[in-house]
Structure formats: structure tokens, C-alpha cells
UniProtKB/TrEMBL annotation:
Repeat listed as a keyword: no
Pfam families to which the protein is assigned, alphabetical: CofD
Biological classification of the source: Bacteria, Bacillati, Actinomycetota, Actinomycetes, Propionibacteriales
Similarity comment: Belongs to the gluconeogenesis factor family.
Name of the featured protein: Putative gluconeogenesis factor
Species, as recorded: Microlunatus soli
Length: 316
């Protein structure tokens, strides 16, 4: 690897998908920024969000943990951030990292970026973590099959947790408010980047929402950076058996102006999908197929194999 050519990379997402991407990317560059969804309304994040009227910290915490180093100190800090208090009391279920982040936000007058950067310095994180919006958001979805007695009727599901868990077919999502302010630092990071990475992750609640924040979406579309879309290893609970090509179609429906340079897919997901390459081409992208799934057969990306593929695509 030529360290003089380390790229500046911005990765978008939330939860486990973004963690997988960051775990790979930090192995090939330290010029790395994670831009994270802020619509979580469940679990510890939802409780903190409701009580303190702040951004939900959970996905931000997971991104910070993913950027910790592989040495003993880094892994210890990652474990501490992710540790949850047991029991059913007032602290039960809260992650230590969520409380740390929320506490710093309170102490620093509610400045979310300053708090996140202080945590990143404490952890020795290899990169920055930024919220995609300066305000907490809500996700609302149009779904079909919500009521089994009228399976073709279109209904509405409100809230990220409910959208992620619905048994109905999700057709479209939107943000509330519909025109939220983007994080100023996130927009600037996109403008300064060499590469943008969308996905992997929950398609409707982690990947697409970034394209629904107008200022951020405009920056993603207009940037001179090259754009990679990393598909999941297989369809997830939100897309329920949808083909890889259908994932591209859903993305295009929510962001018609978006063009891509590379669509990265695991070989197992593209098997028997005759339309994927033509869909990728229609978005301006080269389809890159590689064995990037974890060897244990789970629906996860292997960080080392994904890192090697990213490095090859970026030429580092």
C-alpha cells in the first residue's frame, strides 16, 4: 500500500452495516469519516432521545467503536462503549457509550459534533464520526400488507424501529421533518472526499435516509468524489427477499439524480440475477463482484476481504 496515496473516504450508514464498512476501510486509510443516520427511536437510544431531546447516540456509538484500533487499548475501549447494563432498572439496557456521548453533549451545550470528536480523541479512533443531520429525525414508510385482511392496501408505518421490524412490504420511506438541516461538517466532508461509500446496511432505515436530507443529497450528487455502493450479502428483514437489482431500483426511486461509479456485490447475492449488471450500468456504475462475505456463512461482510476489495477498487 502506498501511504502517499491514502484516499479521503466518507462512509454512510448506521448500525451493523456501517460498522462492517468502517472495520474494512480503517485498514486501508486513516482519512476516514463516518456519516451516521440519526432516526433511531428504539432501545437505549430511543430512551435517551426522548428524555434529553437530543440526537439518538446508538448508531454514532457503534461507528466510534468500529474505528477503535486493533491493539489491546482499542479493543478494550470498543468493548466498553458497547457494554450494556443488565437488569430492568433505570440503567438496564443502556450502553455505556450512549451515556458517555449524551453526557458530553449536555456538558458541551448540546454541540453534537464537539462531543463526538472528544469521544473519538479519547478512544484514539482512526477517523471522524458525524451525524447526517443536526436534528433528530423520524422515518415514515409506505407499506403494503400491513393488514392481512386487505393485503393489497397501502398503509403507513411510523418510526425507525417499527419500519425495521414490520412484516409488511416496504415500498418507500421519507423523513420527518421532510427538509431537515444537514450537518455542516458532514456536507463539507463529502465535498472534500475522494471516495464515498454507501451501504451496506438496512436499506430503508440506514442507507436510503442519507439521500433524503436535501443538502447532504445535493453534496453526494454534485461531488467530484467517486461513489461506491456496497450491497448487502443478502436481502435483509427490510427488503424481504428482494434481488440485488431491486435494491438498486429502490435506491434510484428515492434518489433519481444519483449516479454511481462502482456497485460492489458479493458473488452469492448476484447469482441468478440477470438484471443487476444492466441496472448498475443505468446508474453509470461498473459492477464489481467479489467474495466478500464472512466465511462462517452468516449474512455479514468479512472485514479483511472487504478491505482488500476496497483497496483494489480504489487503487491503494
Amino acid at each position: 500500500m502506498n501511504i502517499e496515496r491514502l484516499p479521503t473516504v466518507v462512509a454512510f450508514g448506521g448500525g451493523h452495516g456501517l460498522s462492517a464498512s468502517l472495520g474494512a476501510l480503517r485498514r486501508i486509510t486513516d482519512r476516514l469519516t463516518a456519516i451516521v443516520t440519526v432516526a433511531d427511536d428504539g432501545g437505549s437510544s430511543g430512551r435517551i432521545r426522548a428524555e434529553l431531546d437530543c440526537l439518538p447516540p446508538g448508531d454514532l456509538r457503534m461507528a466510534l467503536a468500529a474505528l477503535c484500533g486493533d491493539d489491546e487499548s482499542g479493543r478494550t475501549w470498543a468493548d466498553v462503549l458497547q457494554y450494556r447494563f443488565p437488569g430492568d432498572g433505570s440503567l438496564g439496557g443502556h450502553a455505556i457509550g450512549n451515556l458517555l456521548i449524551a453526557g458530553l453533549w449536555q456538558r458541551l451545550g448540546g454541540d453534537p459534533v464537539a462531543g463526538l470528536e472528544m469521544v473519538a480523541r479519547l478512544l484514539g479512533a482512526r477517523g471522524r464520526v458525524l451525524p447526517m443531520s443536526a436534528v433528530p429525525l423520524e422515518i415514515e414508510a409506505d407499506v403494503v400488507g400491513l393488514d392481512p385482511s386487505v393485503p393489497d392496501e397501502v398503509g403507513t408505518v411510523h418510526g425507525q424501529e417499527k419500519v425495521a421490524k414490520t412484516t409488511a412490504e416496504v415500498r418507500a420511506v421519507r423523513l420527518i421533518p421532510a427538509d431537515p438541516p444537514a450537518s455542516v461538517q458532514a456536507v463539507q466532508a463529502v465535498r472534500d472526499a475522494d471516495w464515498l461509500i454507501l451501504g451496506p446496511g438496512s436499506w430503508f432505515t440506514s442507507v436510503i435516509p442519507h439521500l433524503l436530507v436535501p443538502q447532504l443529497a445535493e453534496a453526494i450528487v454534485d461531488t467530484g468524489a467517486r461513489r461506491i455502493l456496497t450491497l448487502n450479502v443478502q436481502s435483509d428483514a427490510e427488503t424481504k427477499g428482494a434481488s440485488a437489482a431491486r435494491h438498486l431500483e429502490l435506491l434510484a426511486e428515492h434518489a433519481p439524480a444519483l449516479r454511481l461509479d462502482v456497485v460492489l456485490a458479493d458473488s452469492s447475492f448476484v447469482r441468478d440475477d440477470p438484471h443487476l449488471e444492466s441496472y448498475a450500468t443505468s446508474l453509470g456504475a461498473e459492477l464489481v463482484v467479489a467474495d466478500i462475505a464472512h466465511r462462517d456463512g452468516s449474512a455479514r461482510h468479512d472485514p479483511l476481504r472487504l478491505a482488500a476489495t476496497y483497496a483494489e477498487v480504489m487503487g491503494v
